[in-house]
Structures are given as C-alpha cells and as structure tokens.
Write a structure and sequence with these properties.
heterodimer; A: 242 residues; alpha/beta; ten-stranded mixed sheet; 26% strand; globular; B: alpha+beta; MutS, DNA mismatch repair protein, domain I; DNA polymerase, domain 1; Dna Ligase, domain 1; six-stranded antiparallel beta barrel; five-stranded mixed sheet; 20 strands; 32% helix; elongated; Recombinase A (chain A); SulA_CellDiv_inhibitor (chain B); UmuC (chain B)
C-alpha cells in the first residue's frame, strides 16, 4: 500500500479509486427504481434507472427515447426541454405516451429554471444543457431530484452526472447502394459513471429493431474487469493495486 | 277563451347578413350569401335582386349572381352581435323576448301607455335602432306574436305596421297556410284545397285536432288569431365582463398587468359569488393608435385571477419578453367570459385532485415564465412531410379543428414507412450531396438521378463518403393548386459515421429533413 502509483497511470487510477469510494459511501437508503425498458438490463446497474439520478445521454435521440419509453409506459409523465427537433412521431412509435409528454422546445436562457420547475412535478425530465452549468447549480438540482424522486436525462455538458450513456458506434441495416430502406440499427452503447456505474460496460443493442422496438443484439456484454452485477468489495479492489 | 296578448315585434331584416358584414367589415350593399351545408341560408338585398333565395344550392346561386360573395354561416356571430342590440332595446322597452337573433317580441301595453300610443312606442324603438346603426328595422303591432311578426313583414315603406285590436284574424287570413304548418302538412292542406290561413281557420277545430294532432291544433289556433303564447321576457343575464380604461395609456406590460390585477380578482369573485367558474375568456385590447386585438383563451381547469392576468400578459407579449415596451400604449382592456360552468362540475375531490393537477400547476408555472406557447403537448396529424405530421398545441388549448380532418391514420401516398426519424428538423438544414465527379446529384423530370451519391456534407462541414443510399422517392402534394403545389424527392442515406439521414431535394437544392439518430 505504501508504494506510490506509477505517475502515468495515477490520474486515471485516482479517478477510479474515488469513484469506488463514492460508490461505497452511498449512505442513503436504497432509492426506488423507475421502471425502465428491459433492454437496459445489461446497461444500467440493476437494470433500471434510480430515482434522484442524473444521467448524461450522448449522441442518440433514439437512446433517449428508449430511456423515456419505460417510465412513460408505466404511467409517468415525461418532459423534454430544449430539443426543438424531438421527433414526436418516432416517440409515439417507440412507446412514449403522447398524452403524458410535455415539450418545452425553446426555454432560452432560463432552461435550468424550467428544468427545476418541471422536476418538481414530472418524474422524468430530458433536457439539453446549453452553456456551462455551475457545479453549485447542478448539485442544487440533484438535491431537488433526490427529494422529489425524479430522474434527469441530460444531453450536453453536465458537471457530476451519476451515469453516462453514449453511443459508441452505430450500424444501420436495410439500406443498400440505391435500394432498400432503413429497417433496424445495431448500436454499441457504453455506460459509465460513478457509484454503482463505476465500471464501463458496453452492450450491443438494437435501437430500433425491425418491429420498432428495442432489443439486445446478442448476449455478449463486455466489461473491462468483471461483471457489473457483482457486488464491489474494497479488499477485492485493493489487491491488484498494491 | 283568453284574448291574445297585444304584442310588438321588432324585426331587423337580413340580420345574419348584417352581422356577418359587421364582423368581417364588408359592405352589406354587395351581393352576399351565407351558406350552411351547401345551400344558401341567408342573402343580401342585392343578391336577392339577382334571384338568389334561401334554400338554393350554392352552385345555382353563383350561376344567378356571378359577383356573389359566399361566406359560411356562423350562428355564434349572429347571437353575439345581437346582444348589444337587445341590451339597448331593453333600455327603451323593458321585458324583451328574443325570438331569434334579429327579431324581438315585447308586450305592447306598457310601452304604448308610457310613450303615449302604439305609434309613438314603435317610433321610439325605431329611433333606438337607428341610433345603433342598424338600418331598415321594422315594427309590427298586433294581437299575439305571430300576427305582430306578419304585420312587421307586411310593413314595407312605412316601417311600422299596426293591426287594430281584434282585426288580427282578418289581417292574417289571406296569408299562405305554410306560415304555420310544416312542409308535409302544407302540401297535404294545399291538395285538400286549403291555401290560406283564413281557409284553414274556417275548418272545425275538433276535426283539425283529430286529423293533425296537437301540432295541427296549435297551428289552427295561430291561423285563427287565437294564439295562446304570450311574450316570455328574458331576464337580463348577469354582467361579468370587466372593462378597464387607462388614463394616461400604459406602455409597459408589467405596469398593465399590475394595474389589472385588482379588476381580475373582481372578475373572478363576481362569478364565484354566483357559484360559477370560468373556463374560457376573451381578452380585447385597444391601443392608442386605434389598433384592436382580440383573442380567446381556454383553461384546462378554471381561471384564477392570476391566470387571467397571465393571459392578458401573453396576449400583449406576443413573442417578446415581459419587460419589453409595447409598440403603442394600451388605452382599454376588456375581459369577457366565454365559457362559464357551475362550480359543482369542477369541485376538487375530498383529498385534493389527482397527480395530474400537480402537473398542471407545474406546467402553468413554466408557462408564466416562457409565455403561453412555451409549453406544448404533441399529437400526430396527417400529412406527407414530417413537420406537418407533428401537431404541437400549447398546454391548455385544444387541438385546432383542421387537424381532425387530416387524420394520421388515413393513407398518405408518399409518406414515410413505419420507421420514423428521431430528430425532425424544425428548419431544414442545407446540405450538399455530390457524386464521384464532385457534381451535385440532380434529378430529372422522370425521376432519374444524374449520378449515384458518393459524398455528403452538412452545412459547411467537410464531405464524408456515403455508405448506403436509396431514392429518389417522389412526394407530390397539391398539384391542383399552383400556389401551394409541392414536388420533392426524398432520399435515405447512411453517412460515414453510421448515422442515417432523410434528405429532400426540392427546386432550390438539397436539404436534410430529419435524422435517424
């Protein structure tokens, strides 16, 4: 334990270490799960979104819609802030109930205030972050989310998000050189973050599949060390480091 | 048997035409027809001169009067514009019954005594109408509303027709029998040789009742001048509207909102005192330069004073912000309740409203930050282009009516297959799509492309190779209408990063309509 870490690997090592510690220091009682589409079983720890979390979603509106579809199907309201290009028809076909969907396409500079106001009443809010968000504002909002049991899905810069989902690569099927039509897509979704999201996991998903649903492409889920489902133990971690 | 009530009928000929002209600012002297489900409902004097008549088919009416202006008949306009007339007449003669918009009935005894004779009373009513700017009003006085109406219709040049007491039966006797009976009975009576009201009245009452039932007996009473119905005077409805004049005129929204707050509370409290809630209001604003703005606002639940002030603010604000100055100072603000309901229908549950009520309050808060259009709900409408298919309605409003006939489920030849793009650009992005030789891909009239697309760039970005593509898929819209006709070609492509795009080629060039991301 006394040997100093190699300088090259130290920053990433320290980050990882801190993430582990934060994960184990989660002192609050187990928060409730928000029903999520079964396709995220391998992607998210425990297979669901937890109330009071902030999740960064990068690079795909379909991925965002897939995350919204589960809560919407279970009767929750969802709100989308600052995304004027959000495709309503796609949202409907992917299983988001339009009766319980609220759009705020142009919140302008007040977007953070709007998100905070919506988070009070709407359990799942998706927002596009514009400009830099001060860490103090972000933590105030996450405190509010924890209190209200809401989930915030953010695209764009967000300091201190609990998890980060992104699309690493995407491959469309059905379209050839001058013939066919788009039918389904295979994407590699990477998940990372802090706490229980500590490990980076990659999953192959079909977003969307041929039946306009979401499906896991195959069982091969790769993680860089061990399965994310396994509980983390401190001594387990320290062995390779010493 | 009781003697029919002596009745005054005040009639404004062609009221629907007059109301429509006043609403739309047209000249009533032009040939104008109002249509309802394809047939003429009312027409102006000029149109009647050309041979247009009620019940005529639209095509036939246009044939007879080529310069005819055709408008849709709107019963609400009739009633709305008649309301101030009724109110003014009530100040001249109280106890007025609205027979229909454009026709009023009232008892003759009181006004005749007050004005010193039936003639003077009729003249007082005509002066009132002239004061309101309603031309050509007529007055008929007779025993019973039916006879008085016929007297008003018969009075052409003098504008006042008075039938002496007891002479009503003789007065209406030569009129056609169709005035009191429905079309089927009229035909039957005509075939029986009964053509006038006098002849109908001459039939024995018991026989008429036996043959034509209660409706026939009622008609028979009318024809014989023994009308039993009297005048049912309306109770003037309570006044809820509020009007506030600003002196000096106000040119800032926040000032105006603050000044109006007290009146808004009064407005709601007055309704609450009558156990009513308001679910729709109309806000009318007049500015210093003579501009007028009027708009109806609905509320998903009911208006509170703060909601009313918000609607006034939003109407003033348009797209600007709350602290912006106005183009012209506001001199007058009027708020009229449009939909009123009993509080009983809007009672909150014993344990408070459901979760949706919380959502509503939260969304209303966001709306008061961003404006009425800031928070929208979405539904899917019909159409071929993706932007047409998403219908966004501000929170609290109902979907516009025209979306109902553009059903999403109807076949829209040329619309996209089931997979819908996740991002639909509100404004299409300009793109470049070029072939191997670097020339832009062109499509000829037969729908053949000049060269297969090879490289693709969005806006000013660098070009990247196209991995897969399909198209062109033509979309032809409204080809019969030269002004709105649209002919575009669609392409789906997959770019180098594995992202799929929906592209559109129109007369101006290549655009990205949506992205499958």
């Amino acid at each position: 334990m006394t040997a100093p870490l190699a300088p090259a690997e130290s920053p990433s090592r320290v980050d990882e270490l801190q993430a582990r510690i934060r994960g184990m220091q989660a002192t609050r009682l187990d928060s409730k799960a928000v029903p999520t589409h079964p396709v995220f079983e391998q992607v998210l720890p425990g297979g669901t979104l937890r109330e009071g979390t902030v999740v960064s979603v990068e690079g795909s509106t379909t991925l965002l819609m897939a995350l919204l579809a589960g809560p919407s199907a279970s009767g929750r309201w969802v709100a989308v802030v600052g995304m004027p290009d959000f495709g309503v028809e796609a949202a409907d076909r992917f299983g988001i109930d339009l009766e319980r969907l609220v759009l705020v396409p142009d919140p302008g500079r007040q977007w953070l205030t709007v998100v905070a106001a919506l988070a009070d009443v709407i359990p799942v809010v998706a927002a596009r972050a514009v400009g830099r968000v001060a860490p103090a504002e972000a933590s105030r909002l996450s405190a509010r989310l924890r209190q209200r049991g809401g989930v915030l899905l953010v695209t764009g810069e967000w300091p201190g998000s609990d998890a980060r989902l992104g699309v690493e690569s995407s491959r469309w099927h059905g379209l050839g050189a001058g013939h066919g039509q788009l039918s389904d897509r295979e994407v590699v979704v990477s998940a990372g973050g802090r706490g229980e999201f500590g490990r980076r996991a990659r999953s192959r998903l079909r977003l969307p599949d041929r039946a306009l649903g979401f499906r896991v492409a195959d069982a091969a889920t790769t993680t860089d060390a061990r399965s994310s489902r396994e509980p983390v133990r401190l001594d387990d971690y320290e062995r390779p480091a010493s | 048997m009781s003697v029919p009530t002596r009745t005054i009928v005040l009639w404004c000929p062609d009221w629907p035409i007059f109301a429509a002209c006043r609403e739309l600012g047209l000249d009533p002297a032009l040939p104008i027809a109002l249509t309802e489900s394809g047939v003429v409902y009312a027409c102006s004097a000029a149109a009647r001169h050309d041979g247009v008549a009620r019940g005529l088919k639209l095509r036939e009416a246009q044939y007879r009067s080529p310069a005819l202006t055709v408008l849709d008949y709107d019963a609400a306009v009739d009633v709305r514009l008649f309301e101030p007339v009724v109110r003014e007449v009530e100040t001249t003669v109280p106890g007025v019954q609205i027979v229909r918009p454009g026709m009023l009935a009232m008892r003759a005894r009181g006004p005749a005594r007050y004005y010193g004779g039936e003639d003077a009373a009729a003249q007082a009513l005509l002066d009132t109408m002239a004061g309101l700017g309603v031309p050509g009003a007529r007055v008929g006085i007779a025993d019973g509303p039916f006879a008085a109406e016929q007297a008003a219709r018969a009075a052409r040049a003098t504008a006042v027709g008075i039938v002496a007491v007891g002479a009503s039966a003789a007065f209406i006797a030569p009129l056609p029998v169709g005035l009191v009976t429905d079309a089927r009975t009229t035909t039957l009576l005509n075939r029986l040789g009964v053509r006038t009201l006098g002849e109908f009245a001459a039939l024995p009452e018991a026989d008429v009742r036996r043959r034509f039932g209660a409706a026939g007996a009622f008609a028979h009473d009318r024809a014989a001048g023994r009308e039993q119905t009297g005048v049912m005077a309306r109770t003037p409805p309570p006044e809820f509207e509020v009007l506030q004049e600003f002196e000096p005129p106000l040119d800032r929204i926040d000032q105006l909102a603050f000044a109006f707050r007290v009146r808004a509370e009064e407005f709601i409290d007055r309704m609450r005192a009558k156990r009513l809630v308001c679910t729709g209001i109309r806000v009318e604003l007049d500015d210093e330069r003579g501009g007028h703005s009027s708009r109806s606002w609905l509320h998903p639940q009911w208006f509170t004073p703060a909601d009313v002030v918000d609607r006034v603010r939003w109407q003033l604000q348009g797209t600007g912000t709350a602290d912006a100055g106005l183009a012209s100072p506001i001199v007058r603000l009027r708020v009229v309740p449009e939909r009123i309901d009993s509080t009983g229908n809007h009672e909150a549950g014993l344990w408070g409203g459901g979760p949706d009520e919380r959502v509503h309050h939260g969304l209303t808060r966001v709306q008061s930050m961003l404006g009425h259009d800031g928070v929208v709900t979405a539904s899917i409408g019909g159409g071929r282009m993706l932007a047409d298919r998403q219908v966004l309605v501000p929170w609290g409003d109902r979907a516009p009516e025209h979306t109902a006939d553009r059903a999403a489920g109807a076949p829209w030849p040329g619309s996209l297959p089931a997979l819908a793009p996740a991002s639909v650009f509100r404004e299409r992005l300009p793109i470049r799509l070029v072939g191997d030789d670097g020339a832009s891909v062109a499509i000829d009239d037969r729908g053949a492309i000049s060269t297969p697309p090879a490289r693709f760039a969005v806006g000013g970005d660098g070009e990247s190779p196209v991995r897969a593509w399909a198209g062109p898929w033509p979309v032809v819209e409204r080809w019969w209408d030269a002004e709105h006709a649209k002919r575009v070609h669609r392409f789906q492509i997959v770019d180098h990063d594995g992202c799929a795009w929906l592209l559109v080629r129109d007369g101006d060039g290549w655009w990205a309509e949506a992205r499958y991301d």
